[in-house]
Design brief:
The protein is mainly α. The protein contains twelve helices and no strands. It holds the Pfam family FA_hydroxylase.
Length: about 260
C-alpha cells in the first residue's frame, strides 16, 4: 500500500461530506449554537492535532504495523491465519481496545479532564466526532502503536481499522435522523447516532455510558449500555455543565479546558 494517508484523507472527506449532507437534509435535534462558529473551531482542531502528531510522534500506526510485519512482532505474525480472518479479528480486537481506553478515560480523574473537552461541545454533530484534545490524541496513538506490536496487526488491517474508526465516529456523532426501526436493528451490532447521543448528555449517569465507537456489543456485554436519554432526544441537553459559555467553543479555550476548573 503506497499511500495510506491519501486513502484515509479521501475517505475522511467523503464521510464528512456525506454525514454533513445527511444532517442538513434530516436533522435529529435542533442545534443550540452557531454552526459555522463551532465547525470552524472543531475542524481547526483537526489541523492542530495533525501538526502535533507530526511533531511529537516518532512513529504512527501504519509505520508501526509495517515494522511489526517486517520484524515478525506480535501474535498474528506467529500464526498462519487466512488474511481475511486476521483482518477481521484485528479490527474487532482493536475496537475492543478503543472501547476499554474510552472507559478508562472516563473513570480516571486526570484522564477525564483531558477527555471532557470532547464532551464540552454544546451541540453534537459530525464534527464532534473529530474533537479531541491533542494530548489525548497523542496518548491514544501510543496505545494503538503498543497494541499493533503486541498483536502484530498487518498494515492493511490498520488502514482498514483507522478508516472504520474515523467513519464510525463521524457517523455516530451525526445530528441526523435514522428511522427508529433501522436504528433498533443497527444498534444490535454497531453504534448509532441515537445510541451515542446518550453519551453526550449532561446527566452524569448518561455521560458515563455507551462507550463504544464502532461495535455496540461491548457496551451490551460489559453492562455500560443505556438505550435512550432520560429526557428524550429532543430535550436532552448536550455538553459539560462546567463549560456552557459560548466562548468555550473557541479553539484556545478548548485547549485549556483540561487545566481549568471554570
Amino acid at each position: 500500500m503506497q499511500n495510506p494517508e491519501m486513502i484515509r484523507l479521501t475517505v475522511f472527506l467523503s464521510v464528512l461530506a456525506a454525514c454533513a449532507l445527511w444532517e442538513w437534509l434530516t436533522p435529529r435535534k435542533v442545534l443550540t449554537q452557531n454552526k459555522l462558529y463551532r465547525w470552524a473551531n472543531n475542524l481547526g482542531l483537526i489541523a492542530f492535532n495533525s501538526i502535533c502528531l507530526s511533531l511529537f510522534m516518532p512513529i504512527l500506526a501504519f509505520e508501526a504495523a509495517t515494522r511489526a510485519a517486517q520484524y515478525h512482532y506480535g501474535l498474528f505474525n506467529t500464526l498462519e491465519l487466512p488474511w481475511v480472518v486476521e483482518l477481521l479479528v484485528s479490527v474487532i480486537l482493536l475496537d475492543l481496545v478503543i472501547y476499554l481506553q474510552h472507559l478508562v478515560f472516563h473513570r480516571v480523574p486526570w484522564l477525564w479532564r483531558l477527555h471532557r473537552m470532547h464532551h464540552a461541545d454544546q451541540d453534537i454533530d459530525v464534527t464532534t466526532g473529530t474533537r479531541f484534545h491533542p494530548i489525548e490524541i497523542l496518548m491514544s496513538m501510543w496505545i494503538k502503536v503498543a497494541f499493533i506490536f503486541i498483536l502484530g496487526v498487518s498494515p492493511i488491517a490498520i488502514v482498514v481499522f483507522e478508516i472504520v474508526l474515523n467513519a464510525s465516529a463521524m457517523f455516530n456523532h451525526s445530528n441526523a435522523k435514522l428511522p427508529l426501526n433501522i436504528d433498533r436493528w443497527l444498534r444490535r451490532v454497531i453504534v448509532t447516532p441515537d445510541m451515542h447521543r446518550v453519551h453526550h448528555s449532561v446527566i452524569v449517569k448518561e455521560t458515563h455510558s455507551n462507550f463504544g465507537f464502532f461495535l455496540s456489543v461491548w457496551d451490551q456485554w460489559f453492562g455500560t449500555y443505556r438505550a435512550q436519554p432520560e429526557l428524550g432526544h429532543d430535550k436532552v441537553k448536550i455538553g459539560i455543565p462546567l463549560f456552557q459559555r459560548r466562548e468555550e467553543q473557541r479553539l484556545d479555550k478548548m485547549l485549556t479546558q483540561p487545566f481549568r476548573h471554570h
